[in-house]
């Protein structure tokens, strides 16, 4: 079997095309547009490409966009105060803070400081909590992107063995909730799974495999169950080339569908960020009787 490639750029284009019409309708109704603020703290070469893609997508939709670069030495208190100002700024309708933050900052505290109505990254505790009930209006961008890619395969997820490698709050944990919501039998692997030498055993069972670790070729191609759908979220710079966490050539032979890196998950994450930005805008204009 040779897997079909899941073309993230094509899926993203479709999402953005649908959104463009919605943004135009919203502008006609409310006479204003969503405005996204992206915050980068310190030098973040890994997120530079992502930020450039955000700018391009926002420009294509006519959404306002500003990049705020802060010095790596910014303190927790200073950043929280700035977030307070952006929360109160009526022009800004969406805020995304690029992770990882410098180790001197407490990422959870920072995420919790963003007004949930403006948290387009979907990581405010309110959004994470709502995801447990299955009615989150703004999910985490990457977990939503993974679900879009799975949806594009046309596969029925009901009862499928889903294995997620990586249990981060940004990706692994939220996507496990979305897969549970689709009635997948869901296993989450992490560093202790690897330390006990059990990772390959779990991966070999997976009909749906989601890998979000950040270690090139952690998952060997020979572990992939024939016919599995493989979503490789990892991005690793190896000898100047972007690679995923899955040994691509081997996995391609066994899987039914696989995301390439680059060109798989990444473009869809940008599109789901834009969709969240539009959702956040609707939450704000909908909650104000004056139409703000
Ligand atoms: P993260 O916060 O560092 O989480 C990595 C996870 O992998 C942790 O849960 C960690 O477990 C686990 N892990 C580490 N070593 C492991 C091992 N040997 N076996 C099994 N699990 C292991 O990273 P993240 O934010 O979730 O991002 C993960 C990857 O996705 C990164 O490469 C990132 O660049 C990429 N990413 C890509 C996109 C995209 O658009 N394509 C978007 C977001 C992120 P412990 O916490 O227990 O150590």
Query: Could you say what the CATH topology of the domain at 141-266 is called?
Result: Rossmann fold
Q: If helices are DSSP runs of H or I spanning 4 or more residues, what is the number of helices? A: 11
Low-confidence stretches: 288-292
Number of strands: 11
CATH superfamily of the domain at 141-266: NAD(P)-binding Rossmann-like Domain
Quickly give the CATH architecture of the domain at 141-266.
Answer: 3-Layer(aba) Sandwich
Task: Indicate the percent of residues in helices.
Answer: 40-55%
CATH class of the domain at 141-266: Alpha Beta
Q: Helix and strand succession?
A: EHEHEHEHHHEHEHHEEEEHEH
Shape: globular
The secondary-structure class comes to alpha/beta
Which ligands accompany this protein?
NADP nicotinamide-adenine-dinucleotide phosphate
Q: Radius of gyration, Cα only, in angstroms?
A: 19 Å
Describe this structure in words.
This protein has 11 helices and 11 strands. By secondary structure, the protein is α/β, with parallel strands linked by helices. The protein has a domain at 141-266: Rossmann fold (3-Layer(aba) Sandwich), CATH 3.40.50. The strands form 3 sheets. It has a 6-stranded parallel β-sheet, sandwiched between helices. Strands 3-2-4 form a 3-stranded parallel β-sheet. It has a two-stranded antiparallel ribbon with strand order 9-10. It is globular and about 50 Å long. It starts with a strand and ends in a 6-residue tail after the last helix. The structure holds NADP nicotinamide-adenine-dinucleotide phosphate. NADP nicotinamide-adenine-dinucleotide phosphate is lined by residues 142, 165-168, 170-172, 189-191, 193-194, 199, 212-215, 218, 233-236, 265-266, 269. The site of NADP nicotinamide-adenine-dinucleotide phosphate (NAP) has 26 residues, from helix 8 and helix 11.
């Amino acid at each position: 079997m040779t897997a079909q490639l899941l073309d993230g750029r094509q899926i993203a284009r479709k999402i953005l095309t649908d959104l463009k019409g919605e943004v135009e309708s919203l502008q006609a109704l409310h006479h204003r547009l969503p405005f996204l603020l992206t915050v980068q703290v310190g030098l973040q070469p890994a997120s530079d490409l992502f930020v450039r893609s955000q700018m391009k997508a926002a420009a294509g939709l006519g959404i306002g966009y500003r990049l705020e670069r802060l010095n790596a030495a910014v303190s927790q208190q200073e950043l929280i105060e700035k977030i307070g100002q952006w929360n109160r700024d009526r022009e800004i309708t969406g805020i995304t803070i690029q992770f990882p933050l410098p180790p001197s900052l407490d990422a959870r505290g920072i995420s919790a400081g963003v007004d949930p109505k403006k948290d387009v990254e979907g990581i405010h505790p309110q959004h994470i909590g709502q995801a447990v009930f299955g009615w989150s209006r703004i999910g985490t961008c990457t977990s939503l992107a993974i679900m879009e890619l799975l949806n594009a395969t046309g596969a029925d997820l009901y009862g499928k063995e889903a294995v997620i490698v990586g249990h981060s709050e940004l990706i692994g944990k939220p996507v496990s909730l979305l897969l549970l919501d689709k009635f997948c039998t869901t296993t989450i692997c992490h560093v202790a799974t690897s330390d006990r030498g059990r990772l390959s055993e779990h991966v070999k069972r997976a009909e749906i495999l989601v890998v979000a670790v950040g270690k090139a070729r952690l998952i060997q191609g020979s572990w992939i169950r024939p016919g599995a759908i493989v979503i490789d979220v990892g991005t690793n710079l190896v000898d100047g080339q972007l690679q995923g966490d899955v040994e691509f050539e081997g996995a391609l032979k066994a899987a039914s569908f696989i995301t390439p890196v680059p060109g798989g998950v990444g473009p869809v994450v940008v599109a789901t960020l834009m969709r969240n930005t539009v959702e956040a805008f609707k939450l704000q204009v909908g909650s104000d009787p004056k139409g703000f």
